[in-house]
Amino acid sequence: MTREHQHTDGTATAASGPRRRTVLLTGLAGAGAGVVTGAGAAVARERATPAPDLRLERARASARPFRGEHQAGILEAPPPYAAFVALDLHAGADRDAVRRLLTVWTDDIERLTAGRGPLTDLEPELAAVPASLTVTVGVGPRVVGLAGAERPSWLAPLPAFPQIDKLLAEWSGGDLLLQICAESPTTVSHAQRRLTAGVADLAAVRWVQRGFREPFEGPGVPMRNLLGQVDGTVQPDVTGLDADLLWVGDDGPAWLRGGSSVVVRRIGMRLDAWDRVDRLSRENAIGRRLDTGAPVTGGRVDTPADLEATDELGFHVVDDAAHLRRAHAAAPHERFLRRPYSYDDGTGPETHVGLVFVAYQADPVRQFVPVQRRLAEMDLLNLWTVPVGSAVFAVLPGARSGEVLGQAMFA
Predict the structure, then answer these.
(1) What is residue 141's predicted lDDT score, i.e. its pLDDT?
(2) DSSP string, 110-140
(3) Which one of the listed residues 165, 231, 363, 379 is annotated catalytic?
(4) What is the mean pLDDT of residues 9-23?
(5) E strands within 123-277?
(6) Per-residue pLDDT band at 215 (split at 50, 70, 90)
(7) What beta strand segments (E) does 232-340 contain?
(8) Is 231 a catalytic residue?
């Protein structure tokens, strides 16, 4: 439409003389104002241009390497957000189905961790910020059997712990595991969606457990769970002298060398009952101070507890049933790498909160089970916690250049 008058019949005529002069004068005045306004707008735009968002730049530049001897997501410091996803292969799956699934995941994970969407990603913008994303893949006994590989003896459900376990199928077992961790919950959610949707014709989701850790905890404090307890305080030196406690070596199946195992235990917490316990009793049950995480025998969070120390009455300062004492390694091999996450699935008549306890080790039967047996037999924390889920997976070795995850299973 032009700046001419429009009649009701749709025809147009030029504006009248006085009207035209008014328009011209107004236009000239407006043009002059426009020069000022335009310059002012340019200045305003320059002033309004935001400074580079350094946080976003760091997030975009925080891509973790995907390829290597070991999978990512094990040795790195755990980021604040995680999702643990178990899947079951469809009925009738065969060796080729397993190979195709791992091929798809290899390509998709490599793209996602580099900040690129998978080939089928309709929202690649959501993948543009990798936020230290790591995806760690584990496999269960069915996958190993279909691939025709040797199954390690420990790749099976953990022994029953009837004193404490109230396991539910909805949180236990699975043929495959995805551990997805990042510094952004959006990054975790998007990766989870793309990785599960990408293999929907081969496998179905069995369970999903989402977890979080406090990102603003003070330095030197590993993690504080929802009981207020500093968690994961005793860790082996798996990057040095204790590396054999984490990685499968020559005594394991050849296809798994450089890999590991992971135990995922979902532990519910009875916070309503915990709320009725005084602080001294809480610290006695744990064997550690709640404020610093240090043992009740003194020191810092990383100070070894003095399990022989006694009080003036001759009783152990660390209670005989304290969690710290029962979880203490009775032999050098009874150690494993802890990567726990809290969960909170909402409140209501019954709270659903707790800990997704994640433990990496070379052999869970040798390393994890003895500790768990002691905890099941006598641990004061059993009064306020209950395991409701349990699963064991073999963690595949890393994929080197040109390789597919799990490639050695098919050799």
Answers:
(1) 98
(2) HHHHTT---TT-S-GGGGS--TT-EEEEEE-
(3) 231
(4) 40
(5) 134-139, 176-182, 203-212, 260-269
(6) confident
(7) 260-269, 337-338
(8) yes
